[in-house]
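Researcher: Next entry in the queue.
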Amino acid sequence: MTSIENEWRKHHISDATRDIWLYDTKTGRHDKLTEWRGEDRDAHFAPQGDAFYWLSERSGSFNIWRRALDGGEPEQVTFHEKWPVRFLSGSKDGTLAYAWNGELWTLKPGNGEPQRVAVTIRQSNLVHGPSTRMVNKDATELAVSPGGGELAIVARGEVFVISLATGN
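Model: Structure for this entry, 168 residues:
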């Protein structure tokens, strides 16, 4: 019978939990990199290619772990409690980014403490409905459609498309 893993389930230990594997495209060989009975997932190589990072529940809740590709003991990198770390990604410079407790976090190489990313969401007043704003001075790009009937303008990070025939 096939086991199915629900990726949102916490503290799951079964035959359906994932491990991290490395595939060698030259030899066709698969090497199992993690041996823990619970969830190990979302692996990312370190920039030098000598180690990898991944999410694991081996400390009780999902946190980031690191291990050299040539072996050695797994090392816990983040120590968040209560809520699981999710959506791990890594950049070329080695910065790790992830979500924890409804917020975005980064961890730069050599910096032992994760940093919360400040996110500001701006929106218009929805109570009063749509509003019209002049963005002429804010336009940074424009392009005419191939048929010449529309104009696309980028202003304030948004794309506006205008019919040249009607002005809508």
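Model: Residues 47 and 93 are 6 Å apart (CA to CA).
Researcher: Noted, moving on.
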